[in-house]
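Subject line: Sequence and fold of a protein, written as structure tokens
Enclosed: The protein record, placed directly beneath this head.
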Amino acid sequence: MSKDKIQEGRECMDKAAKYLKTSLLKWVPDYDSAADEYSKAATCFRVGKSYKESKECLMKASENYLQNGSLFHAAKCMDQAIIMSKEIGDTSDVFKLAMKASHYYQQHGSSGSASLLLNKVADMIQQSDPESAVKLLKEASNISGIEDSTGQAMEYTHKVARLLVKLKRYEEAENEIKRQFELVGEGGPTSNMGRVTVELFLLQLAKDDYVAAKKVLHEYGMQYCEQAEIYMLDSIVNAYSDHDSAQILKMLNSPFIKHMDVEFAILAKSLAEKWIVEPKEQVTNIENEDTDTSPTDFGGTLC
């Protein structure tokens, strides 16, 4: 089956090459037919598990669709080529492919497809290349914002914030979270903003800015948080003011905090660790160690 499909794929490639040839009677290559044959070849190679050849054919199909002005199909082929890159374990070019494909989707008027692709690729590379994943998600958020999909823009922005917290880039993460509040002002949903408020609060503590954390409580907490969340944040503020390590540890280890997104739960744990009071080491009286009062052979003691 695999060999048959691979052979079929190569036959489709030969057909594509013929469509691109010109002659005295055929001055212009038939880009559309060539692209279709390359697409068929890519499918055959994929079924035959020859993923590298499948990707190569998809890229050729994309080039020919572009020659013919078929932007959506060109972007779709790049989209599928990215999947083949994952199959062969080589994601070195997926960032560039994703940005190009999203651009073509937008030119075609398919902004939703553009943002979805960027989000998908960001998920694919966030472990190996978090910096590029951040760029892709920011672009996805911008596209959604332009298209008035504020809820989607907020979701992508939140994913950016989480990645930045993981990278310990707290200032940038703070900016992304504040953008979520701006998007709420543009009509975005408020359902998760209580949790987002707590995240912003924790970021201020991570920057050792207790005053800014207190401001978050009063500016956003009273508006978006549930009563239990307000109590928790207020208790942390008061505990920080009093340097009450026991209360700080209790609040930062609360079930609500532990069940936040993993990046913020880890952040809270690191904050709590700063307030763990280590048991004091027993101090030895050096003078007593140096003074030997044991009996001597002469019946007395050493001075």
User: Anything to note?
Assistant: Confidence is low (pLDDT under 50) at residues 279-303. The longest helix spans residues 2-20. The radius of gyration is 31 Å. The chain is about 75% helix and 0% strand.
